[in-house]
Amino acid sequence: MPPRIILLFSGKRKSGKDYLTDNLKKLLSDRSEVIKISQPIKSHWAKEKNLNLNELLSDGEYKELYRIEMIKWSDEMRDQDYGCFCRVACQNAADKPIWIVSDIRRKTDILWFKENYGDLIRSIRISADLETRKKRGFQFTSGVDDVTSECDLDDYTDWDLVINNGKGRQQLEEQLGSILGLLSHL
Ligand SMILES: Nc1ncnc2c1ncn2[C@@H]1O[C@H](COP(=O)(O)OP(=O)(O)OP(=O)(O)O)[C@@H](O)[C@H]1O
Fold it and tell me: What's the pTM value of the predicted model, to 2 decimals?
């Protein structure tokens, strides 16, 4: 059974993508599945370089060590086939009505989902001011924060929903409530 709705989340580093999508997943429990496009990238990379996959997937120093190399390699793969990682991530996804894609980064990611799932797509931008992101551990890294993988969606404006997760943000329950509004027809 294909999904009935696919929520695509995007946001700058330390805007709170994992925080909000993890909490959404808790709320929706077994009706939903979290999909990470970075998962197939990281598992391929871990195999190739003989690295610890769990360390790469978790939020630590370790993944920062390999971020630049991984971006470069995955960009080359995408140049040949922009849907390659989206496709594998979706093929591996469980059979659930609600898919939560937690790390959309490019216009071509959105394009691929639109081409393959059409009206099922809802796109959500998580925003947070720089000061808040810095408090959460963000440090500008040249080669990471000034390249396509981090900036391609900065000028995208066609979001179904924008959530402030910085200063002046709403309570978590209200943030999640606005996301649930996108599912109200289900
Ligand atoms: N609304 C919030 N309230 C409290 N803590 C938050 C909130 N949003 C995010 N955080 C915390 O800020 C840190 C960074 O958030 P998170 O890992 O979700 O960001 P991210 O956008 O997934 O970052 P990255 O792109 O680097 O993986 C985490 O420790 C998270 O728990």
Answer: 0.93
